[in-house]
Amino acid sequence: MPVGRAILLALFSTASAFAQAPWQQPVPSTGTAAPPPMTMALGTPLTVTAGPWVVAEVLFFSAGRVVADYAWRDSVRARRGHLYTAADLQGDVQDLMTLSRFDKVSPSIYAITATPVPTEFTSISVSSNQVRVVFEVAEKPVIDSPKTKFVTPPTAVGGVILTPTAWRGAGRFLSPGLALDLNAAYIIGRLYGKNSYSDSPRKTNYIDRLGLWTLTADGKMQVQSEASVRPAIAVGGQAMLVFRDSPQPTVTAPGVSVKIDSKRTRVLTDGYLVASKKFGPIRASAGLMQGTIGDLPAMMSEFLTPEAIRFYSRDNNSTEVHSRTVPFISTFYLLKPDYPIGFEIMKFNGAARKPYLINLKIGRFLKMNFDLAVLKYQGGYDVLGLFQFRYNHFPKN
Length: 397
Known about the structure:
Layout: H1 3-20, E1 44-46, E2 53-62, E3 65-66, H2 70-73, E4 83-84, H3 86-97, E5 102-116, E6 129-139, E7 177-195, E8 204-205, E9 208-224, E10 232-244, E11 266-279, E12 282-291, H4 306-313, E13 325-336, E14 339-347, E15 356-361, E16 370-377, E17 380-394
Parallel strand pairs: 2-6
Antiparallel strand pairs: 1-5, 2-3, 2-4, 5-6, 7-8, 7-9, 7-17, 9-10, 10-11, 11-12, 12-13, 13-14, 14-15, 15-16, 16-17
């Protein structure tokens, strides 16, 4: 028989089979399935409403090619060497459609030449040869779901580095109310410093370990919300635990230790009043702290210890750097909700050597959390490196 005529007869037989079995018509859909390549020797087409048959092979065709998907294969009842009925075929079509992977499923049965059925099935099987079960499927288009993007929470705007603001949370809470921030800072040490003391053996100092930790709880009450002209105003208090993982630097003892004890641990507290206002994208604050937080500069440089003041400045009347009144100002700008840059200035009124501290918030801008600070005092200055983390505990972001 010519090849062309055999192909036409196979197509006619398959079409007739579907006309005789309405339940086997493909599920209507917008997709279309490519027929199996007729160049493949699938076998002699059989009527799908007849049966039973003895299965030799199960194939899946999608878009004109054979697909070996074990999840699909495991969903059908057809097994090699087993009897397979028209009801089984109908059930397999329904089970495949329940996978929600296909727009339609079209089954076919082909007798395989020279594969006689086992003798125990000769009186049962409608075909003397074993059969190939073919499912032609039209897969649903796969829509790629967008990749989950990790979104960093907005920056807490309740403070900059060591100074507070009058805002609450991430700045979304505009009405008066309570707020609580937890803040941690680690002052690694001096990157570069310079002094003008005549008795100092070194006028330039750099890469010196400090190892100073500050853990702060900052609670406030916003008593006035921000408006077009008026600033937000808040009153609050801070409790700061300060401890070291290395000794306080001194003129004669620059050693390093990781022991933390009562001699290296202090609790500094303050109450404060602060006003904050937005000027376009810039957020500015000004306020006043009152409390023992004014003792902080003495812990940040060996040139501000009592021994250093007596030795270098020869001032026996002012031997301790401490203050009880600390005015401050700060400003910052959010490049993104989680990318703040800014600075704060703390002035320690009445302290010996008249120190003031400038903290630069630049860490997120540099794709890390490393910030800088400048401690200026009579006779010199130190540039410090630090890590700082502020966590908005209430209200939540």
